[in-house]
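Sample entry (491 residues):
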Amino acid sequence: MTPVKAAGAGLRYNCAMPLPAATLSPGPRVTPGPVAAHPVSLAGPAGLWPARGWFLIAIGSLVLAGVLSLLLVLGRLPFLAPLFTDPLFFKRALVVHVDLAIVVWFQAGTLAFLGLALGPRLHRGASAAALTLAAAGVTGLLVGALMPGAQPVLSNYVPVIDHPVFFTGLVSWFAGAGLFFALALATPARTDAQALTPGAVTALRASAAANLLAIATFLGAWRTTPDAVPSVYYELVFWGGGHVLQAANVAAMLALWLHLLHRWTSRAALPPAVVTALLVALVLPQTVMPPLAFGGTTATHYFPMATHLMRWTLFPVVLVVLGAAAVQAGRLRAELNWRDHRFVGLAGSAALTVLGFVLGALIRGSSTLVPGHYHCAIGAVTIALMAAAYDFCTDVAPAGPAPAHPRRARSQLLLFGLGQAIFGLGFALAGAYGLGRKQYGTEQHVRSLGEHLGLSVMGLGGLAAVAGGIFFLAVMLRVIGTWRRSLIQPA
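Predicted structure, serialized as tokens:
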């Protein structure tokens, strides 16, 4: 384990930072309608280059994850198999695919919206350093997949490749993201333009705090986990921090819900003080994880406490915000445009969240109910990011490009959301009949009709979700291509 610890030696941050209240003043009411209806005027001020930079990394991570998944498919074709002589290459590609599609995409997406909320107030040098470290980290992850003979480890939350190059990239990513999260907590929100509501900014700051707590937990676990076989060692290192990352993702999703709801209804769903109280209730319990990790990952409370925190601290806050959104939508139903892409994104994210809660409650062992649950959970965060991305592109564009057509935005979100829901339900159906998780190909031992049916449903949903993801990337890359100056170059 020596190379791993050497690579992580520089990852030191003070993550016990207070969660400041949002300082962004309420913005003007906006008119419900299609994608381009809101009147925010942001003709590419120089201070938004960090937001554009993080967004580029987020979209790039999805593109790279898609390319890696394509390699996984191509490598199984008989006439191409002789080109891939390293039997572990595909598992390494799978590791990097997961890290890009979950860790990098979620954190970079959150950082992009923090950049939008804070704008010109961000420190230029620190912002540039954070983006540079993060970009170098993504490069390191990709190069790590090419290291011959390097052992992939499919640990929960953050799968890894047991090689110094990969871990240098992973540490560099977390260092860059962590630096910007810390910078976001120390920077007042912008008041020159109302890009985000105070409640959304508060939730984004809560996500930043939770992400820093996760990084601190990773560091504590790395320092205290005894040497063991890689599968056990990395499971312990990433278990606690991985659970805290889920709280960070939920906080980011709630920020996007509040943002989309305000853009759709022209009103804030909850007062800022209530949002602050809810997000403190979500993040404050996570502060126990860094001390537990520094106390030892083999101690009595480290492993079960992470599970209990995820089980009991996330759903109450989510359900309160979801209830407030439903009440507001019902009260204003006659005034609202129910074909707005923001409603589609909100409804899809909420439905996947509730489905994830239900499937999670049904888990009784290590079956495919587990991936069914978490694919719904991560799908909920992803569709919220996708829905908010359409407005984001208009808000930060240097030259104000035309937004995506409303019908295309709705179609893309519907395709991805339905596909992800069917995908998760297929996994759940197979798991209900006892199909084990983390089994592939002939390892699965598919016996019953229910298992066959579940996997077939899963495959159908997966194809729809992938098509929705490709649709989204095509729209985003087209919009980014219209930006007439560098996405990360300060003016």
